[in-house]
Design brief:
about 240 residues; alpha/beta; Carbamate kinase; nine-stranded mixed beta sheet; 11 strands; globular
Length: about 240
């Protein structure tokens, strides 16, 4: 098995399923069972999930709210999603630990790198909530940072599309998919994979990213079993 320790990045929007906002229980249960499947293969799994289905700091700024204040609200939204995923995983008998970048003693452990690594070594799934704990950083940046800190082999970025294309495949039917692309090519072609801070962190630390369709059941397991799924971004 190529990837022993992974960081799975999920978007908050994907948790909405067919709803206009919030959390679709069926989608949540589907994700939890997919994650359990790869855990049973012996993979050490860390997860970062966004909060866009509940709140985004950028939305707050557009409405006249201070960006910093809005970003902290967004971090709380990621905690709601993280708690929901934790509950869903635990209902399947999977030991899960939620670590928060902002101290919330009643619901999560504080993020301590050594503790996170120990949980992974013991076979527990670790969910990192509240982003990096700092405003102006996205959950993509949090995913990149945490993946580097725990020495993950790869970031698996689960999206609604099955990889990176020359254009948005939902809008442009002539868009062509890349099977494999370098960080430099993504830069030069102006493709949107992650925000630039997150992307640069991965490039500088030689951490590959695989962008794949998380909504197709079986894709996550197939990826771990080294099937050609999604698009690999590497140096």
């Amino acid at each position: 098995m190529k990837y022993k320790r992974i960081l799975l990045k999920l978007s908050g929007e994907s948790l909405m399923g067919d709803k206009a906002f919030g959390i679709d229980n069926a989608r949540l249960a589907s994700y939890a069972s997919e994650i359990k499947e790869i855990q049973q293969l012996g993979v050490e799994i860390a997860i970062v999930i966004g909060g866009g289905n509940i709140f985004r700091g950028v939305q707050a700024e557009q409405g006249g709210m201070d960006r910093t204040h809005g970003d902290y609200m967004g971090m709380l939204a990621t905690m709601i999603n993280s708690m929901a995923l934790q509950a869903s995983l635990e209902s399947l008998g999977v030991q899960t630990r939620l670590l928060s970048a902002i101290e919330m003693k009643a619901i999560a452990e504080p993020f301590i790198r050594r503790r996170a690594v120990r949980h992974l070594e013991k076979g527990r799934i670790v969910i990192f909530g509240a982003g990096t704990g700092n405003p102006y950083f996205t959950t993509d940046s949090a995913a990149s940072l945490r993946a580097i800190e725990i020495n993950a082999d790869v970031i698996l970025k689960g999206t609604r599309v099955d990889g990176i294309y020359t254009a948005d495949p939902e809008k442009d039917p002539s868009a062509v998919k890349f099977e494999d692309i370098s960080f430099d090519e993504v830069y030069s072609k102006g493709l949107n994979v992650m925000d630039l801070t997150a992307f640069t962190l991965c490039k500088e630390n030689n951490l590959p990213i695989i962008v794949f369709d998380m909504d197709t059941p079986g894709n996550l397991k197939a990826l771990i079993q080294e099937e050609k799924i999604g698009t690999l971004v590497h140096n």
